Amino acid sequence: MAADLVDYKIREECEVLHMTDKQIKEIMSRLHANIVKGLGKDTNASATVKCFITYIQDLPNGKERGKFLALDLGGTNFRVLIINLGENHFDMQSKIYAIPNHIMTGTGVALFDHIAECLANFMKEHEVYEERLALGFTFSFPLQQLGLTKGILERWTKGFSCSGVVGEDVVQGLKDAIARRGDVQIDICAILNDTTGTLMSCAWKNHNCKIGLIVGTGSNACYVEKTENCELFEGEPDKPNLLINTEWGAFGDDGALDFVRTEFDRDVDQNSINPGKQIQEKMISGMYLGELVRLALVKFTKMGLLFGGQGSDLLFKQGYFYTKYVSEIESDKPGDYTSCMEVLEDLGLSHASEADMAAVRHVCERVSRRAAHLVSAGIATLLNKMNEPHVTVGIDGSVYRFHPHFHTLMTEKIAQLVRPGIQFDLMLSEDGSGRGAALVAAVACRQSQQL
To answer: How confident is the model over 105-121, as pLDDT tens digits?
Structure first.
């Protein structure tokens, strides 16, 4: 077996990345307690898992009709979409616009003016410049919602630092920018984040979809909760369900995950732009998995267990072992190291032996397996809390989408962790947050027409 090539000392060192079933059960119990805390009026302030109210109480039912705009802002570029919903079909056209660095770090006014200008140009291109359209706004930054169209930015992430926006309503910021132009008519019907968009997008196709999950650059989940359990909700109490955005990336910020964290996790955290924050996310998501692998490889090289003790400049440089390398290395068949060899050559490690390559693959597998198990523990916690017989989990994000074994690892682990009798499916979201935003707008319009 190729696996026997891996030095037993490296195997021993990698044991810290293995979570036992007992540890996983403890994580689930702590996460559940944190979610309950986040939902409680008196306990929310001290909860790390904030469980933000989304004010979305209805999922798509397939009867949504019409033309809708969507705006998807979540990183260094944003997407504008126009969606035409008909009976069991929809057509969608979209365009990606860049956000220049000086705007990401400039004023909020400049950011929203830039977005409004792109929206107007998009409407011209699609010949709807004269029409009045409803828009759903996906805003993938930590947001406290005070209503379906009111969201206060808690803090910027992902390299943004626009002034004058934190603590303010971002919907108002965009409305003001559209009003300053005065040339287009857009009604912002809803603000949501990418996790909620993923759930809504999948629910349009599959009415069992009641959990949305992102495992990409970051990680987060949302789920359908009983309205009576949401003590912070101040909307109409007559509807039984309410979508909750957990913001679970911050689980562990209070030390709840310290018992499974390693020296590599602590190193990643200390050298990040937000030390002490988003602890669970740093063990799961694409922004950090490659760096966790790199730190382990550096340690083993310095111990003389890898590459004959000879590293390279790039191996010793923070951020240069990309998460996509992990997916590529694990895509090779057992005993084949073609991709691994290419990655190591890119890093200036062409002197690696076959045993080195087997060891690198072993480290990648340990890190990604742990990530998949942590995500599975979270999803199983939500499934057990909801206690419904059959739930579909809508999933998006580069790690889930491109890692060759993530889906299988999750399916196996969740099945072990859910209560007997609970069935689940994992569904890849095809065009997640953009279509989801338009669907939230469509559902909001459907309701206002019914009133």
So the answer is: 999 999 999 999 999 99
In this predicted model, what pLDDT tens digit does every residue of 351-383 receive, in sequence order? 999 999 999 999 999 999 999 999 999 999 999
Q: Is 194 a catalytic residue?
A: yes
End-to-end CA distance of the chain: 67
Q: How far apart are CA 5 and CA 392, in angstroms?
A: 40
Q: Among residues 72, 194, 265, 356, which one is catalytic?
A: 194
Structure tokens at 325: 């390398």
What average pLDDT does range 58-68 have in this prediction?
Answer: 86
Determine phi and psi for 267, rounding to 5 degrees.
-65, -50
Residues 6+ apart with CB under 8 A from 99: 76, 77, 78, 111, 114
d(CA 304, CA 246): 43
| 158 part of the active site | yes
Cα 95 from chain centroid? 22
Question: Active site residue: 67, 95, 150, 158, which one?
Answer: 158
Entry pTM: 0.91
Least confident of 75-84, 315-324, 382-391: 75-84
Apex 149 CA angle, 34 and 396, nearest 5: 55
Contact by Cβ (8 Å): 134, 189: yes
| Residue 15 to residue 391: CA distance in whole angstroms | 33
CA angle 91–96–98, rounded 5-degree value: 165
pLDDT at 442: 87
Q: Which two tokens stand for residue 393?
A: 């989990």
Tell me the two tokens of residue 101. Answer: 């660095």
> Looking at residues 130-151, what average pLDDT do you find?
90
Q: Give pLDDT tens digits for 202-216.
A: 998 899 999 999 999
- Two structure tokens written together for 217: 């650059």
Tell me the torsion sign for CA atoms 251, 396, 222, 51. Answer: positive
**Cβ neighbours of residue 1 closer than 8 Å, sequence gap 6 or more:** 334
